User: What shape does this take?
Amino acid sequence: MKLGPPTKYAGLMPYARRQLAGLTAILALSLMVAAAGGLQPWPLKVLVDYGVERQPVPPWLQAAFEALLLPRSPRAIVLVAAVGSICVFAVTNALQAALDWRWTVVGRRMMNDLAADLFHHYQRQSLLRHRQTSVGDALSRIGTDSWSIQQFTSALMIGPIRNALTLAVLGVAGWQLSPSMTRLSLALAPLLGFSSWFFGRKLKAQARRMRETQSRLTSFVQQTLTAIPVVQAFSREDFNRRRFEVLAGEATEQSQQRAVVDSAYGMATGIIVTAGMAIVLFAGGRQVLSGALSVGGLLVFISYIRSLQGAAEGLLSTYGALKPVEASLERVLEVLDGRDRLPERPDAVPLPPIPPAGGRRLSFEHVTFGYDPDRPVLTDINLEVLPGQSVALVGETGAGKSTLISLIPRFFDPVRGRVAIDGVDLGDVRLASAREQVALVLQEPFILPIPIAENIAYGRPDATRHEIEEAARAACAHDFILRLPCGYDTVVGERGTTLSGGEKQRLAIARAFLKNVPILILDEPSSALDIETERQLLEALRRLMVGRTTLIIGHRLSTVCGADEIVVLHQGTIVERGTHERLLERRGMYYAFYAVQAAAGSPEFVA
Ligand SMILES: Nc1ncnc2c1ncn2[C@@H]1O[C@H](COP(=O)(O)OP(=O)(O)O)[C@@H](O)[C@H]1O
Ligand SMILES: [Mg+2]
Assistant: This one.
């Protein structure tokens, strides 16, 4: 909190800089608004001093009369004052409207820029970090907190300049009317500054709590609606409703507290302003009585004092004006800081081209990894997959199989040891260049809300429709895709189109087929399929695996028994390895798995 705002919020400056032209226009317009505001009491002064008090008319007013071809009668003065006040009002409002409009456009642009960057940061954020944050929280940072950039620019860049200039203009004008009263009113400024500093601290703390509560509420709604089948199956609707009410109640309570602080702030400021005005009225009134100031002059002055005080307060509370949005700004900066990304070394190079002999070699060397570094999920893994070979991973659920393969696209970095492609540590190559080489079929296939064809071509957007269909055929997906309402153009999730687990799995496999890269990773690719579809698919997969370096995780032994090497993982360590036949002979863990499936009548035991 000791850092001044300029250093602390330096990361937000580029968003303002990109809108420099718009912000300059805003600054010019707000100066004009301030100047027009300064003109507002003048018609009244004209009326009182020259119309009522019959003081000699100054040259500029005479010029106005001549230009308008008016006689110099008191009635004409009244008319000029009335028309003048309408003109001043119209000009002030037109300028204000232009200012508001510019702010809307510029503010929206800055916000869009910032939101786009936040979104992109989230996209690249490491999966380890994603585990710790909810989607609801991300939504509220991208959608709501990004608005703070507008207040930020207004409070920190436009505000101070405008206030300083307003203060200068009005101060000079006030000084000409009465130096002593200008001094008097300026003396009140520090008091106003104090009240906004004092309440600003409270407002900030409140704002942060409010944002957090709101984001808890959003996350709760999002998570509940995502898990709706579970909610309904377990009849948790009423429980969730109560939970919603509790969370919403907290939000209401905090809004109330904020309203209290807000009105206390308004009241304190009001009291100080009123006291200041009373002092000014008293001193000014005496000057009018003694003839040192005209009545009109006092009216102009009183109206200036308000603006003067407003600008002085604005200037003193430049930092305070940021208080209510500081919480949002910090939440935005947290994401922009980007420390949550997997580090890419500045000297990272693209993965070297495939050696002439063909294929990529994958190796794990003494790899230890845990989602929480103190609780390893994998311990001292040594594994090598030679170019064009296939290694199958087996083991009970939770053994760490999916975790092991997630190190290859570098979703996570090992805590100790290294993962390498062709002997090059993944940490030394450009992330994108390594990921380009890997086709991944995850245990939970993700299908995006875009047409099926684009889903299949996700890793190769330039693929032709023919290639997409070929890949779908190979993945045994073509037939079911044709049965969808719009075939390959069906958007999953739209108009009630849903896919079964097995269908999603086949789309994910088609995606891998189409990507056509040297490293293939399959996490239980056929677990959700019936025996017949699985048999067809395995055939296709075997064709796909030819010439590629493959890691395949399988529960069903039919998936794994053809692999060049089978590795049995148990509680994060490799306990057995060898070919299907060798492992059967050993009568160890693999044999035990196998025996269970054989007892269940799995066809491959007979085969
Ligand atoms: N994203 C994650 N965050 C924290 N723990 C995880 C995560 N994914 C898996 N785990 C834990 O790591 C262990 C290994 O899981 P996993 O690799 O999915 O096993 P498998 O694929 O062999 O069933 C389990 O104890 C699991 O709870
Ligand atoms: Mg798994």
